Amino acid sequence: MNPKMIWSNLAVSDLERTTKFYTELGFKCNNTRSSNELTSFVVGENDFVMHFFLKDILKTNMKIEIADSQTANGVMFTLSAQSVDQVNKWEKEVEKAGGKIISKPEEFGNGYYGFVFADPDGHKFNVFYMEGF
């Protein structure tokens, strides 16, 4: 298997809230894909695409049950930070934008520093700085 591209499709309950949250975090809107059923962003140096569909739309189109992201976690995204200071700055930005801090920034292991947060729909993200990476 050699796919041309990979992206994520996540379920949300409120497109306006989701768009506001990720815009405040500085994610770049993917205007070519946004509609009344989804909002879309590109993230990182390689423009990873993240689609956020209304939960009922995603459930109908995928023909599967969608897990409650407030209580379960199907995938955890990691956002790579460039420094400890950037990790700490991002924690404040996440809180200001309405995200929930799951674990405060802390050092773990040798040269590792980060925290975990959830977006308003409960999707989890690990913000991570690794010395020398």
From TrEMBL:
Can you name this protein? VOC domain-containing protein
UniProt cross-references to Pfam families, sorted A to Z: Glyoxalase
Residues that span the membrane, as ranges:
none
Stretches assigned to coiled coil: none
Q: Which domain of life does the protein's organism represent?
A: Bacteria
The signal peptide here is: none
The UniProt record lists the VOC domain at 4-130
Q: Which organism is it from?
A: Mucilaginibacter pineti
Enumerate the InterPro entries for this protein: Glyas_Bleomycin-R_OHBP_Dase, Glyas_Fos-R_dOase_dom, VOC_core
